[in-house]
Design a protein that fits this description.
Blueprint: H1 2-17, H2 49-73, H3 78-87, H4 90-121
């Protein structure tokens, strides 16, 4: 019984004598965030992610290229668009759409990075730090 009390007091003194690690607010960098396909605005059914990714990579830039050619180049004129579409190949239309989507994605990433930086700084609000 005496030994039991001695071991309990020595364990308690070890617990109380050890310095607790201070809690620090870690600033998470934008480039270190995890990327999850479930958070994307595209539909990725579980188990078919690669198939749907291939469909999106082929179809989305082509459709975007067609829309660009119709609205910007042909001026929303169906006759001009059809005449121009005879001369342009699939790859050319896809490349135009790819460049537009790539630019939009880069602008979206830039917007998220600026928003993340602003949210982590919050002017006037100091982060809590233990003394």
């Amino acid at each position: 019984m005496i030994e039991n009390k001695v071991t309990q007091t020595s364990q308690a003194s070890q617990i109380h004598s050890s310095k607790a690690k201070p809690i620090r607010n870690k600033n998470q960098k934008f480039s270190q965030k995890d990327v999850e396909l479930s958070e994307t605005p595209l539909f990725f059914p579980e188990g078919f992610e690669k198939i749907f990714l291939a469909i999106y990579v082929i179809s989305l830039p082509y459709v975007m290229g067609l829309l660009f050619l119709f609205f910007v180049v042909a001026g929303s004129n169906a006759d001009r668009f059809l005449a121009m579409n005879k001369d342009s190949s699939f790859f050319l239309t896809w490349a135009i759409g790819y460049e537009i989507i790539a630019t939009l994605i880069l602008l979206w990433i830039l917007k998220m990075a600026i928003g993340f930086t602003y949210a982590s700084r919050k002017p006037g609000v100091k982060q809590f730090k233990r003394p």
